[in-house]
Amino acid sequence: MSFSTLGLSAPILKALHEEGYENPTPIQAKAIPVILSRKDVLAGAQTGTGKTAGFTLPLLELLSQKKVSEGKSAIRALILTPTRELAAQVGQSVETYGKYLSLKSTVIFGGVGINPQIATLKKGVDILTATPGRLLDHVGQKTIDLSRVEFLILDEADRMLDMGFINDIRKVLAILPKSRQNLLFSATFSDEIKELADNLLNSPVLLEVARRNETGGGISQAVYILDKEKKRELLSHLIQDGNWKQVLVFTRTKHGANKLCEYLISKEITASAIHGNKSQGARTKALEDFKSGSVRVLVATDIAARGIDIDLLPHVVNFELPNISEDYVHRIGRTGRAGNVGSAISLVCGEELEYLNGIQRLIKQEIKQITLDGFTSKQVYVAEVKPQRGRQNNPSRDQKIRAERNSRNGGSSSSVSSKDGQARKPDNRDKKPWEKDKKATHGDDRGQKSYGSHSKTDSKPQRNTKFSQGKKY
Asked: Cα 279 to the chain's mean position, in Å?
């Protein structure tokens, strides 16, 4: 099958040909015809399978088919992404595939000045790619008009929910036209994604090209079990002994990313760090240097797990395992993309063995262990035993973490998200105890009244969410 058989027009096919793309990936082959038929879609595919082109290509086709009145362009398509890097990546895809079409597009996100964005929006755009926080900044300042949106796309929806954007998404939904086509793309399907789909999609078509939470077939996975103090030394050894030229390394914290970067530089290994505390300019430069090869190692927190798209990235290293098992799938999905091969290495100390077990249960496979003299050693994890009162169900570790996160970010509209997508807790340090309790109980009533919600008490009719293919998710 080629792109020419999917109903795409000549200008789009020309742009694809110039980029060297002739045949669609499985998710593209399934999604493009369905989206062109103007149906809502719930699409799931592992990272690196071409989901972005799966929705940008038919979106460009549909927008180019419908003539609009003369004058300034109005926003007809809204694409929401969780991070700045992913927003920029999606925006670039729109520009690349639509370069022979008379459509205008732009990208807005936090961390940069808002005035240039306001100036661009005043000139008129057809396609807007945005992060939720900065989009609502424009809504609050009345510098954006979303009244003519015909298409809404949520890209990496599971990541947006993980980062506490559910209330922001609800606010956006409340101000969009009710009649529109909705596309929800996600690498994993959690209970939260199902709930969001129920409230967003109308008789959606379910598309999956691989079982959920599956890792790419071209990725070789391995794990080293070792003392925590040996991790930096082993990483340096692997890079230098293997002559690795391009390595993406994940840490759990921003401070840890900075310290590891400093260590690698001291070992004469060029490295840069990318995380939420870096300015947008510094983040962009670090990513560009890494892509160009002037920096061998990019040390990142999970903010980069969904926003880095590098052709033929050979190595991903989990310097620290994520505490949410699904994030492992997203991290290693940065390599082995689009049918290529890649290597994913995890450095695991004793306190992370529980995380490793959770990851192996999720992906339904045992990751190969490698021993290396002088570095690896047997580790034992002893879980903390807490006294329990009465009989109760014992949720899994991931469920506990999700519950705690949801209570902070999704359980009430009092949670706050920073402009780069990092969830923040409300600052209650100056509140009296009874004031804290009141806020936790009632949430931010002002936000609920302004934008509405999707609670069961809403008078808004429920959407029909029976899948047109008769499948369940």
From this structure: 19
Count of residues making up the chain? 473
| Beta bridge mates, 176 | none
Residue reference for tokens 């530089």? 265
Cα–Cα distance measured from residue 146 to residue 42, given in angstroms and rounded to the nearest whole number: 23
Q: Once rounded to an integer, what is the mean pLDDT over residues 230-234?
A: 96
Instruction: Enter the tokens of residue 182.
Output: 């909705």
Coil, helix or strand at residue 342 = strand
Q: Identity (one letter) of the amino acid at 465?
A: T
| Residue 452 amino acid letter | G
| Burial readout 388-397 (b: 16 or more C-beta within 10 A, e: otherwise) | eeeeeeeeee
Distances in whole angstroms, Cα of residue 152 to Cα of each of 132, 169, 175, 200:
13, 11, 12, 10
Give the other-Cβ count within 10 Å of 289's Cβ: 16
Q: Are 206 and 467 in contact (CB under 8 A)?
A: yes
DSSP state of 272: E
Q: Give 336-359 pLDDT, tens digit per residue.
A: 766 678 899 999 999 999 999 999
Are residues 172 and 154 in contact, defined by beta-carbon separation less than 8 angstroms?
Answer: no
What is the number of other CB atoms lying within 10 angstroms of the CB of residue 198? 13
Residues 140/64, Cβ–Cβ less than 8 Å: no
What is the rounded distance in angstroms from the CA atom of residue 315 to the CA atom of residue 312? Answer: 9
Q: CA 258 to CA 233: how far, in whole Å? A: 16
H or E element, residue 423? strand 423-424
Give the pLDDT score at 335.
84
Q: Which helix (H) or strand (E) holds 299?
A: strand 297-300
Residue 113: other Cβ atoms inside 10 A: 8
Confidence category of residue 463, pLDDT binned at 50, 70, 90: low
Tell me how far apart the alpha carbons of residues 445 and 453 are, in angstroms, rounded to a whole number: 11
Question: pLDDT tens for residues 18-54?
Answer: 988 888 988 899 999 999 999 999 998 666 678 899 9
3-state secondary structure of 243: coil
Domain annotation for the chain: domains and CATH numbers: 3-208 (3.40.50.300), 219-369 (3.40.50.300), 398-451 (no CATH)
Query: Do 197 and 166 form a contact (C-beta atoms < 8 A)?
Result: no
pTM, whole model, 2 decimals? 0.63
